[in-house]
Amino acid sequence: MRNATSSSKVSTVLAGVALSVSLSGTAFAQSRPDTENGRYSLSATADGVLRLDTRTGTVSTCNNNSGTGWACYAVPDERTAMDAEIGRLQAENETLKAELAQRDPTTTGKTDEALPKSDSLKKSEPKVAEGGRRIEIPLPSDQDMDRMMSFLERAWRRLVEMANRVQRDASGKI
User: Given this model, what pLDDT does residue 30 score?
Assistant: First the structure.
């Protein structure tokens, strides 16, 4: 008789839990934000919700701040910032063209001839100082220094490998 009473108590408790879960589910469904027929698309994030307004394309982050409740803040739009920067640069370009045209009316801001290309790998000739016999030798470039360091590293590795081989050969014969 004791088993029957305890199993009926368990089933009563389970029924109560099921009823409270179903009621809280409807309360939750009623407390959810109105999406206005799919206007907003919500995605959960680690610290809140990401909200996309499908009509305007505005993206907002919504957080539940303690004490103040839910608050949504618009995410800066990179496209708007880029468009503003492009507009600023175009206006600056027009201003500079106008200033250049005022200085020299024959200048259009565009050259008809191509600029001469310089050979960066071509070695410059040593310069003779004025009034003396001193010769100025240009310093090596970064590319030359990298090549030299690479050569020294390879030579050092070969030397260490050769020393290791000699040591192994000597220890094996003794």
Answer: 42
